[in-house]
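Please complete every field before forwarding. Incomplete forms are returned to the sender.

SECTION A: IDENTIFIERS
Entry label: holo-187
Bound molecule: coenzyme A
Molecule representation: SMILES string

SECTION B: INPUTS
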Amino acid sequence: MGARVLSPFTAIDRLRGRLVALRSLRVTDASALDTLLRDGRVTRLLPPRVRRETGRQFVTRVLREQRRGEGVSFAVLPLGSDEVIGQIRLINWSRSERTAEVGYWFRRKYWGRGFATDALRLTCRFGFRHLSLHRIEAIVVVGNVGSRRVLEHVGFRLEGRSRRAARLAVRWADEWRFGLLRGELRC
Ligand SMILES: CC(C)(COP(=O)(O)OP(=O)(O)OC[C@H]1O[C@@H](n2cnc3c(N)ncnc32)[C@H](O)[C@@H]1OP(=O)(O)O)[C@@H](O)C(=O)NCCC(=O)NCCS
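SECTION C: PREDICTED COMPLEX
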């Protein structure tokens, strides 16, 4: 029998990992996320829509998607801190297929400390346990080695490559397609 599907808001406040805590994204996170979205090194491999958004536009959109039941969005904070250092989301959630896609970005000064890996592990565990997901997907611009490492750390497998699927600022790029099945998450 699958995990009981809770309202996402029921469980969010309890998500604590080894390095980070996740809580539901709030309107008041817009300004912290705006700082990240103004950093071209953070956004250069993200979808065009995200590259164009301000923090407020991003938060307004994803909270609307969340209210429609299309996904769940978290702010990421180091354990013991109130600073929002990134966001991670399950998007394109299909209750009938029991699938969702994961997307994330983090403040540059915190890269390389294991925060993204910890946040991804927590988010996938949440998706399998509380959204009853069967499969989580991730789409990564080819060459985004940091993101690939994070995904592989938690058990995602590279399943394919889509040609010229990502529209970057000055070129089209291929995309890696990753998948993680229930039971494959590395703790
Ligand atoms: C990708 C991203 C989330 C990684 O965050 P992070 O906090 O640095 O991730 P972690 O510290 O948990 O792990 C990063 C791993 O990738 C490795 N890594 C990071 N950048 C790398 C690079 N350019 N080349 C090779 N390895 C790299 C690190 O060494 C580490 O691996 P290790 O644990 O085996 O040493 C972060 O760089 C980011 O926000 N990038 C911009 C947005 C983005 O690309 N999002 C993903 C879209 S699919």
